[in-house]
DNA sequence: AGCATAAATAATAA
DNA sequence: TTATTATTTATGCT
């Protein structure tokens, strides 16, 4: 593996120093537990009895046993990351080196940083995904080096037009949370060129905090930063060169009062080389998984291939892709940061969302009182900074609105800035909806589960359909605006539980644990014969009829119902196929 | 758990020194898991009639008692991230080195850094997607600056215990592909936003490459930037400090010769500020989605909260969380990078995979000839590096093996290191399977589509079932080992196409050369074209019209009717799409 | 090695 | 909101 080490450099003057950090993943752990679960899957499933079907619902948890903190959590990992300065060395497994240069930031450039990570993980069974969009990211390629994304890259996707930056999403899974950074750039050879891009402005970059702090700065960004004495989350300000924190993002965190971390930070960039598999940089996120900052990653030497092994001449031909990330999510699917998003729509930054989690959450989780939390208003910030890269708004669709336009219709409106409607930030909603889905999927939750859980905690009106429509934005802005905070809060809580372990999430959601997929029923030939005879007479039996049939055949009623559904489907497909063939 | 150490800081002037950070996650608690299982949700349940409740059937399932294990266990991870400056230390595995630049940090702030993570993973049963845990993240808040992660932060989340880090996963979606970096740091003010970020230090950071390549230059970081004349994507070279490129990763890119970006890069870190929503850093990935390098992110000032606003004294207590990401995916779900993966299993790094894409790909995509491509051999690198963190393996499930154990059974075996079986790296396969699913989903592809496409290009034997079983690892190691490279190559190509646009992806998937496309229930492109033309003329055809259209297209009348219904419904969405594209 | 189709999930029609 | 359909995933069989 790699080694990395070395690193580098700095320049200027001085020192550098550097360090090395080492991280190890090593791992500790004895314990590791891994869950296997092997077979599980099916296994338990059976439990359910037919009869009982109902299930009840969960009681309110009681369960929570334990939990103590982390404890519960399933997977644990230990990570050690020692960092040493000034020394180089080799390390074992994932060493990361970071260098900071003072000047750098300022002057030069900066720093960098890095990180290493370790992830962990867990079980989760389910899937998650984390899509980020990067949509806006880029504007075309522009300029500079850095972050430009080539339009083309994005362009290719249907959604994104060529020029446009669009973005795709990038997902980063992490075990814990962390941040990920995205970027793209390509680099051919690395030599001087880059510098140019980067450097110049030393001053230029400042951290948000600063900005905020000092209003004066045009930067405008005033971010807010104050610590909030809140319970859970702590936040840090970073000033890294490379790192930035998005206030907006933070907010969510505040919601729940989650504990997160945060701190002040400075910035020097560090570069690390993680070697490990490819790790590169990390993102710092708060408990919510929201990104607080990011660390730069280094490239893994080892990995480099073509490159010369050694120090060959500087550049090689690397290719980089452009990225246009949109969201950074943690493994839980929680969004950590938005990367190249559309200007207007910062995913989480909802302005509205409340910060408090629901009761249930609180009860369980431990709140950290100490950590300061910051409430952020994101939206404003997010949006402001970058004008849009051009991305938004130009759509052409004519929305045919009747009387109640849906959010999607409004959002898609052609002209530019249609981001506001009725005082509602449509872009924000759109982003949220997108992120919501991603996060939901990351948690491995179905629309149905979300709907049921919300119905249980928030009262009725949260059917699977409702969730589906929200995700599709097939609802009016007003409805969306109303639903958004509820969904946001609930999801954040679900994510917290999930972090403690899937089991916990399941308890939270439904109460029930894992329900396993029902075992596939095997119908006897006789039964099939009977079912088909009924189907021929009536492909769509009434509930009563289904019940009767199920009794007759002694199969579960649901099984019979599904049989009919599938049978109808099959018939339709069959016919359709024929059609196709014809064509 | 946690504590971490302090770290950092620096202040002003100079040096730094730094830190150690430790994070620990400590914790492991025993698991708690509770699974409940309650009943099933209600779901559809309602259905049941009073009458019939009965049920019957259930077949004996198997109950696999086994289960235990891990299941319960959540895995815990501990992460320690000590950072010391100047010192070497102890650490185990993943060392990270950081350099700081004196001044910079100093002054401001500094830097900080980071963390490392490792991720791991779990059992997953299934699908998973990318979970990362972060478990470890942090320890509490501690000290210093840098990277420490406060435990609390994490703790708050349900998952995380107070002390324990648990981990959630983080996912990062990006649109295109790209890389993401994660990191955290905070920055104080931003001013010149972007620029600042970027510029500075040139020297300081160096890229890995350089490191590798030219050791001599200290500055090293010369970044390169040149644009590439390529068509679509632009590439920039980075030299950022923060940026690094991973050769290995790159290779994939080469495959398809995608247009992406690329360029040489050097290393200086660049910081970009993406303004947009919160973007922070980016990762550079190759076409394959593998991470090539990363760019540092900046923190958004706004977000910072508690932290002092300005540059307060150098260090603050930053807290950093540890991250343990696993994969970086783009929005498409393409994996961009692996972050803290398990040692053994680097998602993508398959050793076997070939770099060349298939023909089809070539034809379509524009190849960038110019861009240098690197062929990398990934696997070796990936895997090798880290021994395992310990993660894996402890499961307890007794695998009941008959004669042909499946990969999942083997992987879940209790004892530790059961990563190898028959010379096959099970962990690697497990990781790949997990990532494959994620990437597939990110591309929006179904198992069926993958199976069909593979059948078309690779010959028979790639049914939906096969894909499903591969993902579930319900196959023998031998079979998995055989299938893996094929899937890997195909997916990489699909991702390349996707980068060019969804349309392209669809063509790739479905259309291709030989393929048969028959298919899935959908309408043929021709039929859709005709339907759309009718739709444009009249979105709400009469029954008569529907009948006529259905005859013309030779589709079932109902199918046509439904198509119109759906098309109307979807108009909104569609429009949305356009909007995006436009953007 | 896979087909056929049961079961599950998302999206729509009522 | 609920009922159904449309799609997708998973699995029994053999």
Automatic annotation (TrEMBL), chains A, B:
Location in the cell: Nucleus
DNA-binding region listed in the record: 516-575
UniProt KW Transcription keyword: yes
Family annotation (PROSITE patterns): HOMEOBOX_2 (PS50071), POU_1 (PS00035), POU_2 (PS00465), POU_3 (PS51179)
UniProt xrefs under SUPFAM superfamilies: Homeodomain-like, lambda repressor-like DNA-binding domains
Keyword Membrane: no
InterPro entries, alphabetized: HD (IPR001356), Homeodomain-like_sf (IPR009057), Lambda_DNA-bd_dom_sf (IPR010982), POU (IPR013847), POU_dom (IPR000327), POU_domain_TF (IPR050255)
Signal peptide stretch: none
Annotated GO CC locations: nucleus
Domain POU-specific: 421-495
Residue span(s) of domain Homeobox: 514-574
GO terms assigned for molecular function: DNA-binding transcription factor activity, RNA polymerase II-specific; RNA polymerase II cis-regulatory region sequence-specific DNA binding
Keywords: DNA-binding, Homeobox, Nucleus, Transcription, Transcription regulation
PANTHER family reported for this sequence: POU DOMAIN (PTHR11636), POU DOMAIN, CLASS 6, TRANSCRIPTION FACTOR 1 (PTHR11636:SF6)
Family from the record: Belongs to the POU transcription factor family. Class-6 subfamily.
Record protein name field: POU domain protein
